[in-house]
Design a protein that fits this description.
single chain, about 140 residues, alpha+beta, 5 helices, 2 strands
Amino acid sequence: VDMGGVYGVQVYPDVQMFPSGKYMCNIMWSCSPDNVDELIATAEAEIAKLKSEGPSSDNILKIQETQRRQRETDLEENSWWLSALSQYYMAGEDPLQILDYGSYVDGVTPEMVQQTANSFFNSGQRIQIVMYPEGT
């Protein structure tokens, strides 16, 4: 959705296995205080649409390409390797799975994303925080 009045949108999904399994998805943006309610409603509508219709095939292709490019950059960074190898070690998984990343990315379908959205976006476990500038 392309809307005016938003200074930037950030979406941070996070899945953690340790110390116990949990997941979260943070959606953040900056905007004029006058736009807060409209933008919250828009974000909620987009999540509902993702759950009911799933993403478009075009969006999946764009995301897959972004993931491939990011992985190329990651593979050149020692800090990424340290983090990745540590995660595989802690999970007791074979680190050679790192080499299968391309096939995982290629295997993502709109239906998979829709199923995941329906599993993970649970409105009963949502926290909404709005920070207003001083004096509003």
